């Protein structure tokens, strides 16, 4: 094998072998002084007649107790590397469990034997007591059975989407004894409840999970079970999209709109998009499920009959909630009509008070943790800036610290203004900690019928740092030990709280005017999702003759986003957003990538980007790709590093990809020139989430 062209990117390496090895075989190979895990990538090449100085190191032991990684898997890895501008090796090794490297062949053989003798599969554990599907579920299922390709399942929160996934998997496994399914969720906290549901239906042996919260031995066990076909169902977060699943016939991406599917460091892949690609490559059906699909997926889906013909995905609608009551009534409080500095408006407080009196729960949602985002001196104008970042440090009252949420720099709160000595420095603005304190004050005098005090609780990244604390706090909410729950978006997702009948977003306006064009889309889905937490116990509400409520406090009560939310009208919101995006030539009507550079000085970072743009001028695809000027990031400096980025955009995905591919080697070179020397790191983000 000659030195492959990719070697410069630290990509494919050549080794000598005595026996020809099948592509996909896992091997141990020497690299420098170490021995590392490798995957045979190409067919072996004979070196007869080659230059004698091509002294290749010999390949180490092959892990031949394992079946080679399949061609489809290798194609997926190669595609992800190409598309996201990373090396094949980086993607492949991140996809494989770290402990694979350390296993001896005998150990592997023993583990596989133990696994397989457990046997596939104590299947359909509770097939006897299946619930009868609703009409909407039945119709959705019938179309998934009848057609192929990718489906967009648009179902309200609580419409029974998970039940549809379970049935699709059950039908598949019953029909095909070799088939496997991959089911993805956006967050680790959502895996336990999903795992429980799948295990109850299919038995413990059939289901494995893959996510970053697992220990290395757990990850290895799950991976081996998937690769060997013993596990029929693989559940996981975004990393699971790279699992080796030889019998893959069905992929589910639940909450497909969730930004967590996009990896934000290293190889910045979208697991949702790769799932669709993988489904096509392997002829597996793909179900993308959401109450508020991403505008990309919505735009790709074929509308109902009678409308214009649309995109490639089959759209399936399940608008009705099952078991839960109707969606909550949305109440919008116009904060311009409230007295200045109002935090919680009188009508909202009144509604919360009524819930407390009835023994129901309320959930108040504020997407900012800490006590106050800034501490300031009224005399001299000092503010709690971070010395290392272009951001303010957040005041955390609980331990009297100023903490930077970007670099982590933490100090005790000063006794007096560090600039002028004024002892009277004050918090400005409000985070969850302060809101919790405020509510505790407001309801201090209020008692339950039995004389007990009102209980306020908070769930956010600060309150859940300790292992297991999220679980115990959620359990307290479920057990009814909390009257009012304050939290960040952590509490908005997925949880099936039965007693919550009021949800409030008290300060959502920031996202309306954000420079990030996706902010309204995210806000809308977050608010719809939050609304979905309320009124999940239909029988209770019916007995009370009550309806759950979602409250929004805003200074822009007439904003179309809130108007659409009032009607729970995703369709018109999406139509309005897509119209704006089309007019502005933004995704999904254009394709984007970001080139980012970090340096000690902003001018160095921007200089690198601008030089890179000059280099791109002559490349293939350049005429179809717009390169915008380099700009600082919204938070320009983090931990004393200056950050800059350049947006690259094209109406043609192919043209953008062509340009990026040709650009990559030039960027590596540029890094080594005097202009590139000061650059600490650079990266390409394809289909970036926030720009
Ligand atoms: P989603 O995933 O759309 O939020 P789920 O599948 O979790 O909805 O269903 C919500 C609730 O309704 C669950 O408790 C589920 O067991 C129940 N459910 C789902 N389908 C049915 C059905 N056909 N009949 C009765 N209950 C159902
Ligand atoms: Zn001062
Ligand atoms: Zn900082």
From TrEMBL:
Catalytic activity line of the entry: ATP + H2O = ADP + phosphate + H(+); Couples ATP hydrolysis with the unwinding of duplex DNA by translocating in the 3'-5' direction
UniProt KW Isomerase keyword: yes
Alphabetized GO MF terms: 3'-5' DNA helicase activity; ATP binding; DNA binding; hydrolase activity; zinc ion binding
Keywords: ATP-binding, DNA replication, DNA-binding, Helicase, Hydrolase, Isomerase, Metal-binding, Nucleotide-binding, Primosome, Zinc
Enzyme type, top EC level: isomerase
EC number(s) recorded for this UniProt protein: 5.6.2.4
Annotated binding of Zn(2+) 1, by residue: 377, 380, 417, 420
Subunit note: Component of the replication restart primosome.
Family: Belongs to the helicase family. PriA subfamily.
Protein name as it appears in the record: Replication restart protein PriA
Organism: Acidovorax cavernicola
Lineage: Bacteria, Pseudomonadati, Pseudomonadota, Betaproteobacteria, Burkholderiales
């Amino acid at each position: 094998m000659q030195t492959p062209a990719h070697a410069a990117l630290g990509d494919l390496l050549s080794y000598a072998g005595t026996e020809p090895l099948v592509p996909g075989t896992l091997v141990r190979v020497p690299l420098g002084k170490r021995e590392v895990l490798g995957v045979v990538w190409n067919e072996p090449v004979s070196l007869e007649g080659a230059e004698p100085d091509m002294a290749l190191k010999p390949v180490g032991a092959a892990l031949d107790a394992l079946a080679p990684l399949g061609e489809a898997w290798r194609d997926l890895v190669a595609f992800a590397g190409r598309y996201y501008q990373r090396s094949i090796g980086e993607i492949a090794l991140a996809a494989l469990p770290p402990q694979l490297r350390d296993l001896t062949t005998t150990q592997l053989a023993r583990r596989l034997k133990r696994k397989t003798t457990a046997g596939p599969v104590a299947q359909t554990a509770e097939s006897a007591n299946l619930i009868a599907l609703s009409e909407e579920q039945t119709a959705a299922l019938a179309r998934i059975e009848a057609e192929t390709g990718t489906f967009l399942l648009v179902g309200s929160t609580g419409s029974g989407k998970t039940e549809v996934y379970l049935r699709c998997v059950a039908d598949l496994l019953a029909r095909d004894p070799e088939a496997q399914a991959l089911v993805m969720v956006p967050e680790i906290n959502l895996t336990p409840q999903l795992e429980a549901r799948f295990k109850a239906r299919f038995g413990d042996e059939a289901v494995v999970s893959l996510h970053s919260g697992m220990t290395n031995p757990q990850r290895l066990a799950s991976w081996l079970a998937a690769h060997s076909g013993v596990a029929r169902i693989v559940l996981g977060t975004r990393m699971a999209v790279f699992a080796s699943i030889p019998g893959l016939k069905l992929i589910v991406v639940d909450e497909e709109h969730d930004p967590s599917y996009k990896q934000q460091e290293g190889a910045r892949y979208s697991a949702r998009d790769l799932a669709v690609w993988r489904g096509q490559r392997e002829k597996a059906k793909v179900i993308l499920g959401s109450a508020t699909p991403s505008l990309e997926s919505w735009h790709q889906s074929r509308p109902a009959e009678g409308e214009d013909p649309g995109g490639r995905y089959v759209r399936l609608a399940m608008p009705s909630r099952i078991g839960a009551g109707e969606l909550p009534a949305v109440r919008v409080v116009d904060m311009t009509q409230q007295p200045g500095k109002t935090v919680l408006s009188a009508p909202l407080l009144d509604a919360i008070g009524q819930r407390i009196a009835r023994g129901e729960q309320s959930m108040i949602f504020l997407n900012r943790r800490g006590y106050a985002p800034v501490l300031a001196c009224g005399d001299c104008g000092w503010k709690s800036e971070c010395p290392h970042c272009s951001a303010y440090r957040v005041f955390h009252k609980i331990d009297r610290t100023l903490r930077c949420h970007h670099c982590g720099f933490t100090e005790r709160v000063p006794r007096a203004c560090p600039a002028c000595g004024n002892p009277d420095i004050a918090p400005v603005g409000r985070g969850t900690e302060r809101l919790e304190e405020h509510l505790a004050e407001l309801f201090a005098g209020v008692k339950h019928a039995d004389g007990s005090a009102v209980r306020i609780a908070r769930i956010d990244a600060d309150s859940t740092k300790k292992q297991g604390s999220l679980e115990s706090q959620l359990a307290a909410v479920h057990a009814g030990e909390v009257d009012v729950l304050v939290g960040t978006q952590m509490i908005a997702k997925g949880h099936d709280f039965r007693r919550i009948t009021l949800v409030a977003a008290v300060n959502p306006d920031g996202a309306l005017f954000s420079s990030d064009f996706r902010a309204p889309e995210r806000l809308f889905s977050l608010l719809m999702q939050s609304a979905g937490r309320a009124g999940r116990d239909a029988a209770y509400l019916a007995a009370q003759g009550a309806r759950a409520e979602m409250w929004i406090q805003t200074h822009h009560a007439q904003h179309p986003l809130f108007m659409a939310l009032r009607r729970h009208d995703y369709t018109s919101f999406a139509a309005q957003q897509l119209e704006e995006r089309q007019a502005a030539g933004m995704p999904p009507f254009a394709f984007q990538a970001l080139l980012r550079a970090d340096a000690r000085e902003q001018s160095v970072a921007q200089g690198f980007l601008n030089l890179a743009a000059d280099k791109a001028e002559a490349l293939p695809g350049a005429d179809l790709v717009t390169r915008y000027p380099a700009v600082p990031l919204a938070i320009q400096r983090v931990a004393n590093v200056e950050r800059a980025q350049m947006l690259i955009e094209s109406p043609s995905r192919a043209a953008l990809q062509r340009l990026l591919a040709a650009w990559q080697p030039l960027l590596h070179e540029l890094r080594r020139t005097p202009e590139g020397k000061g650059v600490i790191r650079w990266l390409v983000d394809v289909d970036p989430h926030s720009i």
